[in-house]
Amino acid sequence: MDQRNKSLVVICGASAGDGRATAHRFAAAGYSIGLLARDEAGLASTQDELNRYDVQVLSISVDVADASAVEAAAIRLEEALGPLVIWVNS
């Protein structure tokens, strides 16, 4: 699981719990991280925590029930952070 800033992992539900823990694991392995969730404060907190890993992180507040919004978020994340290789729904 060691990619060192070469690949993008997107994690839905990244503002707390398993999603946040998963984000930490991938960031520690060097992946760029896209964070998706509805809770803006939780996303900001997760992003602040991930800054210690020296990887690129971008968070977007989105409701995964809105397919168009999720697709737009995925496009924005790829444009900003590179090719998406792993998508985690938590």
Characterization of the model:
By secondary structure, the protein is an alpha/beta fold. Helices cover 42% and strands 24% of the residues. The protein contains three helices and four strands, in the order E-H-E-H-E-H-E. It has a four-stranded parallel beta sheet with strand order 3-2-1-4, sandwiched between helices. The radius of gyration is 11 Å and the shape is globular. The mean pLDDT is 93.
Topology:
Elements: E1 8-12, H1 17-28, E2 32-37, H2 40-50, E3 57-61, H3 67-81, E4 84-89
Parallel strand pairs: 1-2, 1-4, 2-3
Describe the structure using short key phrases.
single chain, 90 residues
Strand residues, percent: 15-25%
Structural class by sheet pairing and helices: alpha/beta
Q: Cα distance, first to last residue? A: 19 Å
CA-atom Rg in angstroms = 11 Å
Q: Which regions have little confidence, pLDDT < 50, spanning 5+ residues?
A: none
Quick recap:
With 90 residues, the protein is of the alpha/beta class.
